[in-house]
User: Fold this.
Amino acid sequence: MNLHLRKTLDRSKPNRRDFMVQTGCAGLGITSAVNTLAHLQLMGTAAAQNAGDDYKALVCIFLNGGMDTNNLLIPVAGTARTHYETGRGIPQYIDPTKGGVAIPMEDITTAGSQINPLNAVTEYEPSVGYLGADANGNRLAVHPGAMHIKTMFDAEDLAFITNVGVLTQPNVTRANFSSLPASQKPPQLFSHSDQQTQWQSSIPDRPFKNGWGGRVADILDGIHNTDPEALSMMVSINGFNSFQVGTTQQPYVMSASGVTSYSATWSGGSPSTPYGSALQTAFTSKKPFTAEYDPFKFPTTANSPYQNTSPGWRLAALEQLLGMSHASLFDEGYINVAKNARVTEGLIGGALNLTANGVTTTLDTHFDNAFAGSGINGLTNGFAQQMRMVARLIVGNSVLNNKRQIFFVQLGGWDTHTSQIPVSNGVARTDQSYYSLMLQLSCAMKGFRDSLQAAGLWNNVTSFTASDFTRTFTPNKTDSTGGSDHGWGGHMMVMGGAVRGKRIYGTFPNLTVNGGIDVQGNRGRWIPTSSVDQYAAVLARWFGVDTSQLGTVFPNLSRFINPFTPAGKLDFME
Assistant:
């Protein structure tokens, strides 16, 4: 169903197409509504332009719960290091009753450690900022569990964007924060649910309507994804989210395990000719019952498309219902939703079939190797499975026929109010809490990078992190059970072949507690120096949004310094 044709209809007269669109979603509830719009392939509002043959994918890695990025990117020398040790509290591993949430200096500087400091370079390039250090020359390191992140940084495949957060306006300071009107501050600033929505919408001072990923898809879908039978531009591997809510575009939501396979119940085709291809031809042709596919040929009938098994009979019964005509427009609309869902399963299945044999083995090898020595199984870990599924869909994109794709994955558990650095018998544990999360993130990102490099698609894909907020610099306890609470501005990562890597963008925060950019009190909640709008605009422009359209996607962007200028310090994409 290609609804851009509605532009030519007389809207004053009711018609079957409008009835199906307007009632299909309402009748099936929110989950079905999401996939209804995806399956119906509502077209973008932008005027059609000549699209290039290039393929690009944007992958949002959302770190749910508020990742403590104060322990992701760590100062190793000078005043910043002193502030770090004083504010965070160095754990005394030989005495489990003492501690904090900081990484001990010996874990950073010991020869052969996985957390060797990032290379400090003194050159300054006005267009991209300092290399390997913050704008003030502070030498920085990464968490011990982020060894692969450092490797990708050194390979120029990854960059850091420092102190990013939700803002409604610039020039927020510690001095004026309390006196600013509520309309000039993000509402519910330290609330998980509110900040997740605001990060994913980029418009904190308005009621939520859509996410910035959805608005990007609204603009670009009709330009780059012109095939009405193609999969939705947006795919979520981790449930419904605000980031991918568009006005006309909605995500296809699936799991990390893929879609249900019907190869055991269908007697036609082969792994190279997926079941859904015949189903798609039947449901989209004017004569749905063909010699290759007829749902009314029972499993015991000659040339039936179904196997004579219990699952085969059940599938035949389902598709006989789908094949019936209905006088009621509502019933017909309901059935067409199910048909479109089945066709989409066929599309996804076809894409995954391209990586079902040798390619899957290769992908698995990359993820398995990336997790080697971590104590985590790279093939069964939930987050790694999400990233591997995205890699498979990107590799199999020739079947999906998208020129642009936006993916959403999520790693939760970052709400580290307690035991951020747990110890056992005076030794820091690497299999729990923050350390384990960092290993999962770092290893999965490397497996994803290696998979796409091997497939020759690394330059076409950019992944970026986002999170509710960072966490308070000052821990909430002084012993080894201490954690951190809800903060504000934090550090993000971008990786991809088009990223200007091995650089640290933005402004690393002044780590002075109860002063500097600590917004209020003495907990170390950093006022962001770069807004989500600025950060996301750089990603959107690389993805294909014209500079003149950035204001449509990010209505508040004009309030801030242009991120593409030297003063903006955020031009991190080629």
Summary: Residues 1-52, 110-131, 268-278, 280-289 have pLDDT under 50 and may be disordered. The CA atoms of residues 356 and 569 lie 43 Å apart. The chain has one domain: 58-256+356-559. The first helix runs from residue 16 to 40.
